[in-house]
């Protein structure tokens, strides 16, 4: 016969919507998100409970992982064995869990991403700390629920003696939401709990002093606290993790970057492969070899560098392009009262503490009920001891045990001694006459004869007194919340003292969350040289030590035949170098990006540093700082005497391919870029020995594509401007150096101020190679010759003369050599003739 069915009309849209919502909630609640109380997902909770039921404790022998997985699947979690085993493995990995809950024996994977051995080969048992999550489970502390087929009961949550949600963190993807909670240090989290118990009005900002940040099992370095603070306040934030590295140099001068700690969840083997690929594609330069030297003692990745490589630059590139520096996005989503919710740090602690209150109250009630039941039996035994002869006689006369029990319950018995003990314990006595309950009568009948000896009688009295005191303590704990909270704090301290470990992850408080390349590079002064053929290098300013006036000097660089040093200037490793080219473009590089070399090294070809066109050449370089004040102007001066002023903020963001700085007339090139305040004076010198001084305001501010205005009328087509100086006042001293090595210091007012566009006044009777402003004590002058010889002399050793004087010998030159450039540098060393 056909079976009658109830058919309900429902639209497809409604049915799909309802079914998908049911599925989504099932995934959210039943699989993907942790409970805010014990910090566990259902699969982890069921694994721990199944191991407890198997007797797979920390002090018992290991059991095969396959047996545990089988019990979990068969009894509580009817899903795939791979998913269950993966969850079991994660709880045993010291690089995944801040506080491991499972003790594994065998291959449980590695930070290289190696898979664990099959479950039939590995063995597990509970870690001792897992007992603090399972403890008191049999004391009615939490609710139990039927398993999937309703044949067994399983806990809906574990009693959890510590805030496991924060200590071990959690990660999962549900339907339409996800959670990613980082692990924290157990000791710090418990300190925050204790502080919140004592001061319930603490806010998230106050809790930072107890929990300064996450604490990852793989250690590494956390940059800054801003992202963590935001996550604590809102439940969402981002923190930056950086590997711990050391720059090592052996006796042969070989430099190695050693990586000893990795950011959380970084695959070491994949990281090494990624670095090798970047080196192969030349996205990172300076690395000669990569070795994995990790062993049982810990992680060690050795990255060997080439001889010319700058370790800090290579390291910063590794941070930028590889997983040596990663971001961890915090999303604190957990189940609260069965529903998903984004919680803050304070809320996570409050939820745990409220849960612990409930657990301790339920445990106390359970123990109180048990103690009262025992006290009731002991009270009956005490009555029996007071009326022993009569009871024995009554029992002997009874026809059966049931009749004896009824007879004991029917009579009234003397209980003066019991009453005194109850009164001493602060409890109400029933009076001088007692009537026994059925339970008490049965206990008397079950009493063995040896309990009637004197020692056993004293033991029963002692047990009764102890039980009454225990009942009083339990009742006081239930009646006074202060006592209850003190009990919770005491248990937290006990867990802390037994399992807390020092913090693993270092927090760099002054660091920015956003990586800045120069974070690890000291802002030391450097001297940058650029040859006529386009070879550039950086040297420490201390490479050139102070010499007496007239000395031979030191070799600044080795140059090829036909090449010579053309520019020398000072900056710092954090300084921004603006490279202005002869075609009117500008490029930006940092001081640490300039390859370092020895005094005799030639340097690196400038096309390897800047993307120059085939016929393009760097004409001048201007050194500034990224944090420099953008007020004032930049005055650009060309060889043909054209100048224009431009606002510095025009060059704050320069494309890697360069940007237009000035439009040059045919045959002209750029000489200098001066930083001015807009109200000073400009002093220009020409190769023909002329000088012109005019007000800066005569050159108006223009855009990047402007060509500028004329500043001086040159003496001939071969004449050119060789030096440009920005003056603050006319009393400033100026050093003028001629091409034959002679020099003189004079005040700027010696050069009569005129309007721009004139031919100026005579500054020297010989070709002027360059000029520099002399500010006073504590500075030296670097003289650079066309043969690559540099001399460093104290500026105050050059005597002051008039504009028309010949000057003094500053540098002895070989035949055919001449002074090419003049540069003022800080005096960084003391002494002479070094």
UniProtKB/TrEMBL annotation:
Enzyme Commission number(s): 5.6.2.2
Domain of life the protein comes from: Bacteria
Localization, UniProt: Cytoplasm
Reaction it catalyzes: ATP-dependent breakage, passage and rejoining of double-stranded DNA
Residues the record marks as active site: 121 (o-(5'-phospho-dna)-tyrosine intermediate)
InterPro entries assigned to the protein according to its UniProt record, in alphabetical order: GyrA, GyrA/parC_rep, Gyrase/topoIV_suA_C, Topo_IIA-like_dom_sf, Topo_IIA_A/C_ab, Topo_IIA_A_a_sf, Topo_IIA_dom_A, Type_II_DNA_Topoisomerases
Family: Belongs to the type II topoisomerase GyrA/ParC subunit family.
UniProt-recorded name of the protein: DNA gyrase subunit A
Organism: Acidithiobacillus caldus (strain SM-1)
Biological classification of the source: Bacteria, Pseudomonadati, Pseudomonadota, Acidithiobacillia, Acidithiobacillales
